[in-house]
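Problem: given the chain below (486 residues), write out its structure.
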Amino acid sequence: MKIKIKIILLFTIFLVSLISLLVINQLNSQTVLESLDKQDTMNLKILNAVSDLSILSNDYLLHRNDRSIEQWNSRYDSIQVTLKHQEHSHTHTEEEIRLLEKILEEHVIIKGIFSKLTENDLSKELEERLVSQLLINLNSMYDQASQIAKISNDQVGVSQRRAYFLNLIFITLIFVIVSFGAYISFRAVSVPVNKLFQATKKLEKGNFKTRVDIKTKDEFEKLGSSFNKTVASLGKINEERQQINKAKTELLSIASHELRSPMTPIKGQLQMLMTGYSGKLNNKQKEAMGIIVKNINQIDDVIVDFLEVSRIEAGRFEFNLAKVNLTKSITEQVEKMKLFMPEKKVTLAAKIGPLTTITTDLVKVMKVLKNILSNSIKFSKTNGKVEVVVRKKGKTLLFIITDYGIGIKPEHQKKIFKPFFQGEKTMYRKYGGTGLGLPVSKGIINSLGGKIWFKSKLGEGTTFYFTIPLTPPKDVKSPSKTSKRK
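Solution.
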Protein backbone atom coordinates (compact mmCIF):
# COMPACT_ATOMS: atom_id res chain seq x y z
CA MET A 1 0.00 0.00 0.00
CA LYS A 2 1.35 3.41 -0.97
CA ILE A 3 2.09 6.05 1.66
CA LYS A 4 -0.46 8.40 0.07
CA ILE A 5 -3.24 5.78 0.34
CA LYS A 6 -2.23 4.99 3.95
CA ILE A 7 -2.42 8.62 4.98
CA ILE A 8 -5.77 9.14 3.16
CA LEU A 9 -7.19 6.01 4.85
CA LEU A 10 -5.98 7.09 8.29
CA PHE A 11 -7.35 10.59 7.73
CA THR A 12 -10.74 9.19 6.61
CA ILE A 13 -11.02 6.93 9.70
CA PHE A 14 -10.03 9.83 11.92
CA LEU A 15 -12.53 12.20 10.26
CA VAL A 16 -15.43 9.70 10.47
CA SER A 17 -14.66 9.02 14.16
CA LEU A 18 -14.47 12.74 14.88
CA ILE A 19 -17.77 13.53 13.11
CA SER A 20 -19.49 10.59 14.87
CA LEU A 21 -18.36 11.80 18.27
CA LEU A 22 -19.47 15.35 17.52
CA VAL A 23 -22.91 14.15 16.34
CA ILE A 24 -23.39 11.92 19.43
CA ASN A 25 -22.31 14.75 21.69
CA GLN A 26 -24.70 17.18 19.98
CA LEU A 27 -27.63 14.73 20.25
CA ASN A 28 -26.82 14.07 23.91
CA SER A 29 -26.65 17.79 24.69
CA GLN A 30 -29.91 18.44 22.82
CA THR A 31 -31.70 15.63 24.71
CA VAL A 32 -30.50 16.97 28.06
CA LEU A 33 -31.62 20.51 27.17
CA GLU A 34 -35.05 19.33 25.99
CA SER A 35 -35.52 17.36 29.21
CA LEU A 36 -34.52 20.36 31.32
CA ASP A 37 -36.84 22.68 29.35
CA LYS A 38 -39.75 20.24 29.77
CA GLN A 39 -39.16 19.94 33.52
CA ASP A 40 -38.86 23.71 33.90
CA THR A 41 -42.18 24.11 32.07
CA MET A 42 -43.92 21.62 34.38
CA ASN A 43 -42.54 23.20 37.54
CA LEU A 44 -43.59 26.62 36.23
CA LYS A 45 -47.12 25.25 35.76
CA ILE A 46 -47.19 24.08 39.38
CA LEU A 47 -46.05 27.48 40.64
CA ASN A 48 -48.58 29.23 38.38
CA ALA A 49 -51.36 26.92 39.61
CA VAL A 50 -50.51 27.65 43.27
CA SER A 51 -50.30 31.36 42.45
CA ASP A 52 -53.71 31.17 40.65
CA LEU A 53 -55.19 29.41 43.67
CA SER A 54 -53.90 32.18 45.95
CA ILE A 55 -55.36 34.84 43.66
CA LEU A 56 -58.64 32.89 43.49
CA SER A 57 -58.79 32.72 47.29
CA ASN A 58 -58.22 36.45 47.70
CA ASP A 59 -60.73 37.18 44.98
CA TYR A 60 -63.26 34.91 46.65
CA LEU A 61 -62.79 36.54 50.04
CA LEU A 62 -63.33 39.99 48.56
CA HIS A 63 -66.01 39.23 45.93
CA ARG A 64 -67.65 35.92 46.88
CA ASN A 65 -71.12 37.33 46.42
CA ASP A 66 -70.37 38.60 42.89
CA ARG A 67 -70.39 35.07 41.40
CA SER A 68 -72.36 31.94 42.02
CA ILE A 69 -70.85 29.06 43.93
CA GLU A 70 -70.77 27.03 40.69
CA GLN A 71 -68.56 29.63 39.02
CA TRP A 72 -66.16 29.67 41.96
CA ASN A 73 -66.05 25.82 41.96
CA SER A 74 -65.40 25.77 38.19
CA ARG A 75 -62.30 27.97 38.60
CA TYR A 76 -61.20 25.84 41.53
CA ASP A 77 -61.63 22.58 39.53
CA SER A 78 -59.56 23.91 36.60
CA ILE A 79 -56.65 24.57 38.98
CA GLN A 80 -57.07 21.09 40.46
CA VAL A 81 -56.94 19.53 36.97
CA THR A 82 -53.59 21.28 36.29
CA LEU A 83 -52.11 20.00 39.56
CA LYS A 84 -53.48 16.47 39.00
CA HIS A 85 -51.92 16.42 35.52
CA GLN A 86 -48.51 17.31 36.97
CA GLU A 87 -48.87 14.55 39.58
CA HIS A 88 -48.84 11.89 36.86
CA SER A 89 -45.87 13.34 35.00
CA HIS A 90 -42.96 10.90 34.51
CA THR A 91 -40.30 13.63 34.68
CA HIS A 92 -40.75 14.43 38.39
CA THR A 93 -38.67 12.82 41.11
CA GLU A 94 -40.19 10.97 44.05
CA GLU A 95 -39.53 13.97 46.31
CA GLU A 96 -41.30 16.30 43.88
CA ILE A 97 -44.29 13.94 43.61
CA ARG A 98 -44.48 13.74 47.42
CA LEU A 99 -44.57 17.53 47.68
CA LEU A 100 -47.12 17.70 44.87
CA GLU A 101 -49.35 15.24 46.76
CA LYS A 102 -49.16 17.53 49.82
CA ILE A 103 -50.11 20.48 47.60
CA LEU A 104 -53.14 18.51 46.40
CA GLU A 105 -54.03 17.64 49.99
CA GLU A 106 -53.83 21.32 50.91
CA HIS A 107 -55.95 22.01 47.85
CA VAL A 108 -58.68 19.68 49.14
CA ILE A 109 -58.58 21.40 52.56
CA ILE A 110 -58.90 24.82 50.88
CA LYS A 111 -61.87 23.53 48.87
CA GLY A 112 -63.48 22.47 52.15
CA ILE A 113 -62.86 25.91 53.62
CA PHE A 114 -64.48 27.46 50.52
CA SER A 115 -67.51 25.23 51.02
CA LYS A 116 -67.89 26.32 54.68
CA LEU A 117 -67.46 29.97 53.77
CA THR A 118 -70.47 29.72 51.43
CA GLU A 119 -72.77 28.89 54.36
CA ASN A 120 -75.01 31.81 55.29
CA ASP A 121 -75.30 31.24 59.05
CA LEU A 122 -71.52 31.61 59.78
CA SER A 123 -70.59 33.68 62.80
CA LYS A 124 -68.04 36.41 62.33
CA GLU A 125 -65.62 34.65 64.65
CA LEU A 126 -65.85 31.36 62.65
CA GLU A 127 -65.46 33.20 59.34
CA GLU A 128 -62.29 34.89 60.56
CA ARG A 129 -60.95 31.54 61.75
CA LEU A 130 -61.66 29.93 58.35
CA VAL A 131 -60.02 32.82 56.50
CA SER A 132 -56.94 32.54 58.73
CA GLN A 133 -56.79 28.79 58.09
CA LEU A 134 -57.16 29.46 54.37
CA LEU A 135 -54.13 31.76 54.40
CA ILE A 136 -52.09 29.20 56.35
CA ASN A 137 -52.90 26.49 53.82
CA LEU A 138 -52.13 28.78 50.89
CA ASN A 139 -48.70 29.65 52.40
CA SER A 140 -48.04 25.94 52.98
CA MET A 141 -48.86 25.20 49.34
CA TYR A 142 -46.60 28.01 48.17
CA ASP A 143 -43.72 26.72 50.35
CA GLN A 144 -44.12 23.23 48.94
CA ALA A 145 -44.24 24.60 45.39
CA SER A 146 -41.05 26.58 46.13
CA GLN A 147 -39.37 23.37 47.37
CA ILE A 148 -40.34 21.68 44.10
CA ALA A 149 -38.75 24.60 42.21
CA LYS A 150 -35.61 24.34 44.36
CA ILE A 151 -35.35 20.58 43.73
CA SER A 152 -35.83 21.26 40.04
CA ASN A 153 -33.06 23.87 40.08
CA ASP A 154 -30.75 21.43 41.85
CA GLN A 155 -31.56 18.84 39.20
CA VAL A 156 -30.80 21.39 36.51
CA GLY A 157 -27.39 21.97 38.12
CA VAL A 158 -26.74 18.23 38.30
CA SER A 159 -27.83 17.80 34.69
CA GLN A 160 -25.67 20.68 33.60
CA ARG A 161 -22.66 19.23 35.43
CA ARG A 162 -23.38 15.85 33.88
CA ALA A 163 -23.63 17.45 30.45
CA TYR A 164 -20.35 19.30 31.11
CA PHE A 165 -18.73 16.05 32.23
CA LEU A 166 -20.00 14.25 29.12
CA ASN A 167 -18.70 17.09 26.95
CA LEU A 168 -15.36 16.79 28.70
CA ILE A 169 -15.32 13.04 28.02
CA PHE A 170 -16.15 13.65 24.35
CA ILE A 171 -13.45 16.33 24.07
CA THR A 172 -10.98 13.92 25.69
CA LEU A 173 -12.01 11.17 23.27
CA ILE A 174 -11.60 13.56 20.35
CA PHE A 175 -8.17 14.56 21.64
CA VAL A 176 -7.20 10.89 22.06
CA ILE A 177 -8.38 10.09 18.53
CA VAL A 178 -6.57 13.11 17.09
CA SER A 179 -3.40 12.23 19.02
CA PHE A 180 -3.61 8.58 18.05
CA GLY A 181 -4.19 9.45 14.40
CA ALA A 182 -1.29 11.90 14.47
CA TYR A 183 0.91 9.31 16.22
CA ILE A 184 0.07 6.59 13.69
CA SER A 185 0.65 8.99 10.79
CA PHE A 186 3.88 10.23 12.35
CA ARG A 187 5.19 6.71 12.96
CA ALA A 188 4.27 5.66 9.44
CA VAL A 189 6.78 8.23 8.20
CA SER A 190 9.20 8.82 11.08
CA VAL A 191 10.16 5.19 11.83
CA PRO A 192 11.46 4.33 8.34
CA VAL A 193 13.00 7.81 7.96
CA ASN A 194 14.80 7.40 11.30
CA LYS A 195 16.09 3.96 10.27
CA LEU A 196 17.43 5.43 7.04
CA PHE A 197 18.96 8.38 8.92
CA GLN A 198 20.74 6.14 11.44
CA ALA A 199 22.00 3.92 8.62
CA THR A 200 23.36 6.92 6.69
CA LYS A 201 25.17 8.10 9.86
CA LYS A 202 26.85 4.69 10.12
CA LEU A 203 27.65 4.80 6.41
CA GLU A 204 29.16 8.25 6.87
CA LYS A 205 31.57 6.73 9.42
CA GLY A 206 32.65 4.13 6.88
CA ASN A 207 30.47 1.21 8.00
CA PHE A 208 29.57 -0.42 4.68
CA LYS A 209 27.96 -3.41 6.40
CA THR A 210 25.04 -1.35 7.67
CA ARG A 211 21.59 -2.29 6.37
CA VAL A 212 18.01 -1.12 6.97
CA ASP A 213 15.09 -3.46 7.65
CA ILE A 214 11.93 -1.67 6.52
CA LYS A 215 8.79 -3.80 6.06
CA THR A 216 6.13 -1.14 5.40
CA LYS A 217 5.04 -2.44 1.97
CA ASP A 218 5.20 1.06 0.50
CA GLU A 219 7.70 3.45 -1.07
CA PHE A 220 9.81 3.41 2.09
CA GLU A 221 10.37 -0.33 1.74
CA LYS A 222 11.48 0.21 -1.87
CA LEU A 223 13.73 3.07 -0.74
CA GLY A 224 15.22 0.84 1.98
CA SER A 225 15.86 -1.92 -0.54
CA SER A 226 17.56 0.56 -2.91
CA PHE A 227 19.61 1.89 0.01
CA ASN A 228 20.80 -1.62 0.91
CA LYS A 229 21.79 -2.32 -2.69
CA THR A 230 23.62 1.02 -2.91
CA VAL A 231 25.52 0.35 0.33
CA ALA A 232 26.44 -3.13 -0.90
CA SER A 233 27.81 -1.60 -4.11
CA LEU A 234 29.70 1.06 -2.15
CA GLY A 235 31.11 -1.68 0.08
CA LYS A 236 32.51 -3.51 -2.94
CA ILE A 237 33.93 -0.24 -4.30
CA ASN A 238 35.47 0.47 -0.89
CA GLU A 239 37.06 -2.98 -0.77
CA GLU A 240 38.49 -2.45 -4.26
CA ARG A 241 39.75 1.00 -3.23
CA GLN A 242 41.42 -0.45 -0.15
CA GLN A 243 43.08 -3.11 -2.28
CA ILE A 244 44.25 -0.42 -4.72
CA ASN A 245 45.54 1.72 -1.83
CA LYS A 246 47.32 -1.27 -0.37
CA ALA A 247 48.91 -2.06 -3.72
CA LYS A 248 49.82 1.62 -4.16
CA THR A 249 51.36 1.75 -0.67
CA GLU A 250 53.35 -1.42 -1.31
CA LEU A 251 54.48 -0.10 -4.69
CA LEU A 252 55.40 3.24 -3.12
CA SER A 253 57.37 1.52 -0.39
CA ILE A 254 59.20 -0.83 -2.78
CA ALA A 255 59.89 1.95 -5.29
CA SER A 256 61.15 4.28 -2.54
CA HIS A 257 63.50 1.64 -1.14
CA GLU A 258 64.75 0.74 -4.60
CA LEU A 259 65.30 4.40 -5.46
CA ARG A 260 67.02 5.14 -2.19
CA SER A 261 69.41 2.20 -2.42
CA PRO A 262 71.49 3.71 -5.25
CA MET A 263 71.13 7.21 -3.76
CA THR A 264 73.50 6.47 -0.89
CA PRO A 265 76.53 5.52 -3.05
CA ILE A 266 75.73 8.36 -5.49
CA LYS A 267 75.81 10.91 -2.65
CA GLY A 268 78.96 9.29 -1.29
CA GLN A 269 80.77 9.50 -4.64
CA LEU A 270 79.68 13.12 -5.13
CA GLN A 271 80.98 14.09 -1.70
CA MET A 272 84.34 12.37 -2.49
CA LEU A 273 84.55 14.25 -5.76
CA MET A 274 83.84 17.57 -4.06
CA THR A 275 86.58 16.97 -1.47
CA GLY A 276 89.08 16.37 -4.28
CA TYR A 277 89.46 12.64 -3.69
CA SER A 278 89.62 11.97 -7.43
CA GLY A 279 91.42 15.15 -8.31
CA LYS A 280 91.18 18.84 -7.64
CA LEU A 281 88.11 20.64 -9.01
CA ASN A 282 88.05 24.15 -10.32
CA ASN A 283 85.42 26.65 -9.16
CA LYS A 284 83.11 25.98 -12.10
CA GLN A 285 83.20 22.25 -11.44
CA LYS A 286 82.59 22.78 -7.71
CA GLU A 287 79.57 24.96 -8.50
CA ALA A 288 78.17 22.32 -10.84
CA MET A 289 78.79 19.59 -8.26
CA GLY A 290 77.02 21.73 -5.63
CA ILE A 291 73.96 22.00 -7.86
CA ILE A 292 73.98 18.21 -8.36
CA VAL A 293 74.29 17.53 -4.62
CA LYS A 294 71.49 19.99 -3.87
CA ASN A 295 69.14 18.28 -6.34
CA ILE A 296 70.18 14.82 -5.14
CA ASN A 297 69.27 15.91 -1.59
CA GLN A 298 65.92 17.16 -2.82
CA ILE A 299 65.26 13.83 -4.55
CA ASP A 300 66.28 12.06 -1.35
CA ASP A 301 63.84 14.21 0.65
CA VAL A 302 61.05 13.28 -1.77
CA ILE A 303 61.90 9.60 -1.43
CA VAL A 304 61.89 9.96 2.36
CA ASP A 305 58.42 11.55 2.12
CA PHE A 306 57.27 8.63 -0.06
CA LEU A 307 58.52 6.21 2.58
CA GLU A 308 56.83 8.21 5.34
CA VAL A 309 53.51 8.17 3.46
CA SER A 310 53.73 4.42 2.89
CA ARG A 311 54.51 3.86 6.57
CA ILE A 312 51.60 6.06 7.67
CA GLU A 313 49.13 4.25 5.39
CA ALA A 314 50.48 0.86 6.42
CA GLY A 315 50.37 1.79 10.12
CA ARG A 316 54.10 1.19 10.53
CA PHE A 317 55.11 4.65 11.76
CA GLU A 318 57.79 4.40 14.47
CA PHE A 319 59.16 7.12 16.74
CA ASN A 320 62.38 7.68 18.64
CA LEU A 321 60.85 9.00 21.85
CA ALA A 322 62.96 10.97 24.30
CA LYS A 323 62.56 13.67 26.93
CA VAL A 324 63.38 17.03 25.35
CA ASN A 325 62.81 20.76 25.76
CA LEU A 326 61.83 22.09 22.33
CA THR A 327 62.70 25.77 22.91
CA LYS A 328 66.21 25.60 21.44
CA SER A 329 65.24 23.29 18.57
CA ILE A 330 62.29 25.48 17.54
CA THR A 331 64.51 28.61 17.56
CA GLU A 332 67.16 26.87 15.44
CA GLN A 333 64.55 25.58 12.97
CA VAL A 334 63.08 29.08 12.53
CA GLU A 335 66.58 30.51 11.95
CA LYS A 336 67.31 27.83 9.31
CA MET A 337 64.01 28.59 7.51
CA LYS A 338 65.04 32.25 7.19
CA LEU A 339 67.46 31.03 4.50
CA PHE A 340 64.63 29.30 2.59
CA MET A 341 63.65 31.18 -0.60
CA PRO A 342 65.62 34.33 0.29
CA GLU A 343 64.48 36.00 -2.94
CA LYS A 344 60.99 36.48 -1.40
CA LYS A 345 62.42 38.44 1.53
CA VAL A 346 59.84 36.96 3.95
CA THR A 347 60.29 37.96 7.60
CA LEU A 348 60.02 35.17 10.21
CA ALA A 349 59.05 36.17 13.75
CA ALA A 350 58.96 33.65 16.61
CA LYS A 351 57.30 33.99 20.01
CA ILE A 352 58.10 30.98 22.17
CA GLY A 353 56.61 30.82 25.66
CA PRO A 354 58.10 28.96 28.62
CA LEU A 355 58.09 25.31 27.54
CA THR A 356 58.35 22.30 29.82
CA THR A 357 60.26 19.12 29.07
CA ILE A 358 58.12 16.67 27.12
CA THR A 359 58.47 13.13 25.76
CA THR A 360 58.32 13.12 21.97
CA ASP A 361 60.25 12.47 18.74
CA LEU A 362 62.26 15.69 18.25
CA VAL A 363 63.26 14.98 14.63
CA LYS A 364 59.69 14.31 13.46
CA VAL A 365 58.21 17.30 15.31
CA MET A 366 60.82 19.56 13.70
CA LYS A 367 60.00 17.97 10.34
CA VAL A 368 56.35 19.00 10.82
CA LEU A 369 57.39 22.54 11.74
CA LYS A 370 59.72 22.68 8.72
CA ASN A 371 56.97 21.43 6.33
CA ILE A 372 54.45 24.01 7.51
CA LEU A 373 56.99 26.86 7.55
CA SER A 374 58.15 26.01 4.02
CA ASN A 375 54.53 26.14 2.78
CA SER A 376 53.91 29.40 4.65
CA ILE A 377 56.98 30.99 3.03
CA LYS A 378 56.18 29.58 -0.43
CA PHE A 379 52.70 31.08 -0.46
CA SER A 380 53.54 34.36 1.25
CA LYS A 381 53.72 37.53 -0.77
CA THR A 382 57.09 39.16 -1.46
CA ASN A 383 58.26 41.11 1.61
CA GLY A 384 55.60 39.24 3.57
CA LYS A 385 55.64 37.99 7.13
CA VAL A 386 55.31 34.61 8.85
CA GLU A 387 54.67 34.41 12.60
CA VAL A 388 55.43 31.39 14.80
CA VAL A 389 53.89 31.12 18.28
CA VAL A 390 54.52 28.16 20.61
CA ARG A 391 53.03 27.91 24.10
CA LYS A 392 51.91 25.38 26.65
CA LYS A 393 48.18 24.73 26.64
CA GLY A 394 46.86 22.24 29.17
CA LYS A 395 48.59 18.91 28.67
CA THR A 396 49.91 19.86 25.21
CA LEU A 397 52.22 22.25 23.39
CA LEU A 398 50.33 24.39 20.89
CA PHE A 399 52.08 25.56 17.67
CA ILE A 400 50.54 28.43 15.67
CA ILE A 401 52.08 29.35 12.29
CA THR A 402 50.47 32.32 10.51
CA ASP A 403 51.19 33.72 7.05
CA TYR A 404 49.53 36.59 5.19
CA GLY A 405 49.80 35.11 1.72
CA ILE A 406 47.44 33.87 -0.96
CA GLY A 407 45.28 31.67 1.31
CA ILE A 408 43.51 28.44 0.39
CA LYS A 409 40.38 28.25 -1.74
CA PRO A 410 37.30 26.96 0.17
CA GLU A 411 36.82 24.07 -2.30
CA HIS A 412 40.41 22.92 -1.67
CA GLN A 413 40.37 23.09 2.13
CA LYS A 414 38.89 19.60 2.63
CA LYS A 415 41.60 18.04 0.42
CA ILE A 416 44.65 19.83 1.75
CA PHE A 417 45.81 16.89 3.89
CA LYS A 418 45.38 14.30 1.11
CA PRO A 419 48.63 12.87 -0.38
CA PHE A 420 49.75 14.43 -3.69
CA PHE A 421 47.01 17.09 -3.60
CA GLN A 422 48.21 20.42 -4.98
CA GLY A 423 45.65 23.19 -4.66
CA GLU A 424 47.66 25.74 -6.58
CA LYS A 425 49.46 23.74 -9.26
CA THR A 426 51.03 26.84 -10.79
CA MET A 427 52.58 27.83 -7.46
CA TYR A 428 53.89 24.31 -6.86
CA ARG A 429 55.48 24.20 -10.30
CA LYS A 430 57.07 27.55 -9.63
CA TYR A 431 58.42 26.76 -6.16
CA GLY A 432 58.54 22.96 -6.20
CA GLY A 433 56.76 20.44 -4.01
CA THR A 434 55.03 17.08 -4.24
CA GLY A 435 51.98 17.68 -2.06
CA LEU A 436 53.27 15.25 0.59
CA GLY A 437 54.43 17.68 3.28
CA LEU A 438 51.05 18.27 4.91
CA PRO A 439 49.82 14.63 4.71
CA VAL A 440 53.11 13.46 6.30
CA SER A 441 52.80 16.17 8.95
CA LYS A 442 49.24 15.12 9.77
CA GLY A 443 50.31 11.47 9.99
CA ILE A 444 53.10 12.36 12.43
CA ILE A 445 50.92 14.58 14.65
CA ASN A 446 48.01 12.13 14.75
CA SER A 447 50.35 9.21 15.52
CA LEU A 448 51.83 11.18 18.42
CA GLY A 449 48.33 11.74 19.84
CA GLY A 450 48.05 15.42 18.80
CA LYS A 451 45.79 17.36 16.46
CA ILE A 452 46.42 19.49 13.39
CA TRP A 453 44.06 21.95 11.70
CA PHE A 454 44.02 25.31 9.94
CA LYS A 455 41.99 28.42 9.17
CA SER A 456 42.34 30.18 5.86
CA LYS A 457 40.81 33.06 3.93
CA LEU A 458 41.50 33.49 0.25
CA GLY A 459 43.77 36.46 -0.40
CA GLU A 460 44.40 37.11 3.30
CA GLY A 461 46.51 34.16 4.44
CA THR A 462 46.46 30.92 6.41
CA THR A 463 47.05 29.91 10.03
CA PHE A 464 48.09 26.34 10.84
CA TYR A 465 47.66 24.90 14.34
CA PHE A 466 49.02 21.67 15.75
CA THR A 467 49.38 20.23 19.25
CA ILE A 468 51.92 17.84 20.76
CA PRO A 469 50.95 16.01 23.98
CA LEU A 470 53.40 16.37 26.86
CA THR A 471 53.27 12.59 27.21
CA PRO A 472 52.54 10.45 24.10
CA PRO A 473 49.82 7.77 24.17
CA LYS A 474 50.83 4.25 25.20
CA ASP A 475 50.17 2.88 21.70
CA VAL A 476 52.84 5.08 20.06
CA LYS A 477 55.36 2.75 18.41
CA SER A 478 59.07 3.09 18.97
CA PRO A 479 61.99 0.92 17.79
CA SER A 480 62.73 -0.21 21.36
CA LYS A 481 59.16 -1.41 21.87
CA THR A 482 59.18 -3.12 18.48
CA SER A 483 62.40 -4.94 19.25
CA LYS A 484 61.07 -6.05 22.61
CA ARG A 485 57.99 -7.50 20.99
CA LYS A 486 60.14 -9.30 18.48
